[in-house]
Amino acid sequence: MEEEKKEVKPDKEKESEIDAIIQKVKSRLSSEYNELLQILKRPSRFLWSNFLMGVVRGIGIAIGVTILGGVGVTIVLLILGKMAHAPLLGHFVSRLMEIIKGTATNHIY
Question: What is the pLDDT of residues 52-82, one digit of tens each?
């Protein structure tokens, strides 16, 4: 039987790798701890930055909804435009398109 050879690192190499990992963990924890301390020292800055982020998100949502709404209405109007010439529904679809476009008169059909 052949013996499997495992690569065994000397203890000093293992210790240096472990020390490097520990140092990385400590640096990450200390940076997160420092950020938390900054928030606790100046809560007004934290609140102000969150407020501004909320305003920017709200503006982004409003712009996105406006664009998607316009695209949606355009698609609906294109579909209804194709249906306006249908034999049975044509009259109702053309009336609906007038209402959507805002050119409808007050006549009741």
Answer: 999 999 999 999 999 999 999 889 888 877 7
Which residue is it, tokens 């409808």? 104
Distance CA 34, CA 29 (A): 9
**Domain range for 69:** 58-109
Q: Is residue 85 part of a domain?
A: yes
Please tell me whether the overall predicted TM-score, pTM, comes out greater than 0.85 for this model. Answer: no
Count the domains in the chain.
Answer: 1
* Distance (Å, whole) CA 4 – CA 92: 83
Flag whether 33 is in a domain.
Answer: no
